[in-house]
């Protein structure tokens, strides 16, 4: 079974941004380096090299069933993990987590240790980062520990909750406040000491923060959240720079989680049905993304890896956009989901692959419905 871990994906995207140039790929692609070479690079005077070396150590020893969206290019001569994992990998990363002077390096090391949890108990090491001098890294460490609690059923230490609350006590950043509330909600009743802070947050001026606080309170109190409607269409586009998500409901409403108001409140149910009919006409319900990847592998001469979206890259492109697009469509009688990594570049390289052609046309139809009128007022989020 392939696991898609959204928390790991978000962490990876952040790290790519930290050690990337203008494109989504790392400044240094060390996927073909041996473990010994990666450990040597961790001693480099160049912080970018240390950051990328830690990134690729984590990717090398991650759960192999974990599908990482927007991952770096993995070179065809990339070695398999050296098992058992050399003890000096843990020793070196543990030292860097507390001693490296650059926050971006410590962040990369933190992420690597979280992935290595699959092979070694890194929890006590990650807990050291709860005392990091950088508030962002303290919250990152808390987030990784909450995820370990979810993935490995480990009990959360009291330091995690205390670190989150102390780190956001005076913060005015809405994204930070919202993420902190989300983390506390994931802990459930174990985070009951955060109830007063979350209650206060429900009166925040920003709608995103209020929503996150209300959701967290419901989970801490064991209350049921209002039943969520199932969207008829979901379109998600993500890269290391930004992500968008839009949901179409059966009453014609189009909603984005990033916005407090519907994207297009004047859309009608009839227009939605017309869009569904058009998606059916072009054949969207019949396409399988893995079939497209199999064809790409055949055309490129690369080895096809089932369920993987980040191993084969379009030829002749120096700049990789690193974006992933997912389209989910549910009609009364059928449902289909397709995900493509860099669909535009794939289609440019392989325009005769039917699945890619249909996906691009379906994405165009959906994006036309989302596009706001010219000169439309911007959403304030309050």
Stated plainly, the CATH topology of the largest domain is called Leucine-rich Repeat Variant
Strand order of the largest sheet: 3-2-1-4-5
Count of distinct structural domains: 2
Mean pLDDT: 81
H/E element sequence = HHHHHHHHHHHEEEHHEEHH
Could you walk me through the main structural features you see in this protein, from its secondary elements to its overall organization?
- It is a single chain.
- By secondary structure, the protein is α+β, with helices and mostly antiparallel strands.
- It folds into two domains: 6-220, Leucine-rich Repeat Variant (Alpha Horseshoe), CATH 1.25.10.10; 233-370, 2-Layer Sandwich (Mago nashi protein), CATH 3.30.1560.
- Helix content is 47%, strand content 7%.
- The chain has a five-stranded antiparallel β-sheet with strand order 3-2-1-4-5, covered by helices on one side.
- Helix 4 (87-99) packs antiparallel against helix 5, helix 9 (174-187) runs parallel beside helix 11 and helix 14 crosses helix 15 (354-370).
- The protein is flat, with a radius of gyration of 22 Å.
- Residues 1-18, 316-321 and 372-382 have low confidence and may be disordered.
């Amino acid at each position: 079974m392939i696991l898609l871990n959204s928390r790991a994906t978000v962490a990876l995207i952040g790290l790519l941004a930290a050690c990337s140039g203008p494109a989504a790929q790392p400044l240094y692609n060390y996927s073909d380096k041996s473990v010994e070479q990666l450990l040597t690079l961790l001693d480099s005077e160049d912080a970018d090299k240390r950051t990328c070396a830690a990134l690729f150590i984590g990717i090398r020893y991650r759960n192999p069933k974990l599908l990482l969206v927007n991952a770096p290019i993995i070179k065809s001569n990339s070695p398999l993990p050296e098992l058992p994992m050399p003890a000096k990998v843990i020793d070196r990363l543990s030292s860097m987590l507390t001693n490296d002077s650059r926050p971006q390096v410590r962040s990369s090391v933190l992420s690597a240790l979280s992935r290595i949890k699959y092979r070694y108990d890194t929890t006590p090491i990650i807990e050291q980062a709860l005392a990091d001098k950088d508030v962002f890294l303290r919250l990152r460490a808390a987030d990784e520990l909450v995820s370990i609690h979810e993935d490995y059923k480990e009990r959360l230490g009291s330091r995690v909750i205390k670190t989150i609350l102390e780190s956001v006590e005076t913060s005015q950043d809405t994204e930070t406040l919202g993420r902190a509330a989300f983390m506390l909600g994931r802990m459930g009743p174990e985070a009951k000491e955060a109830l007063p802070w979350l209650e206060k947050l429900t009166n925040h001026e920003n709608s995103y923060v209020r929503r996150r606080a209300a959701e967290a309170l419901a989970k801490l109190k064991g209350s049921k959240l209002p039943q969520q409607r199932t969207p008829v269409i979901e379109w998600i586009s993500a890269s290391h720079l930004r992500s968008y998500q839009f949901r179409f409901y059966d009453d014609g409403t189009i909603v984005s989680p990033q916005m407090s108001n519907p994207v297009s409140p004047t859309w009608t149910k009839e227009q939605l049905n017309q869009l569904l009919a058009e998606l059916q006409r072009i054949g969207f319900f019949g396409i399988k993304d893995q079939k497209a990847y199999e064809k790409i592998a055949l055309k490129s001469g690369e080895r096809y890896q089932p369920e993987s979206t980040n191993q084969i890259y379009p030829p002749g492109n120096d700049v990789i956009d690193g974006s992933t697009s997912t389209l989910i469509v549910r009609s009364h009688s059928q449902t289909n989901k397709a995900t493509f990594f860099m669909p535009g570049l794939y289609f440019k390289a392989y325009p005769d692959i039917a699945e890619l052609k249909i996906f691009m046309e379906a994405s165009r139809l959906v994006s036309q419905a989302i596009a706001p009128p010219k000169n439309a007022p911007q959403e304030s989020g309050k």
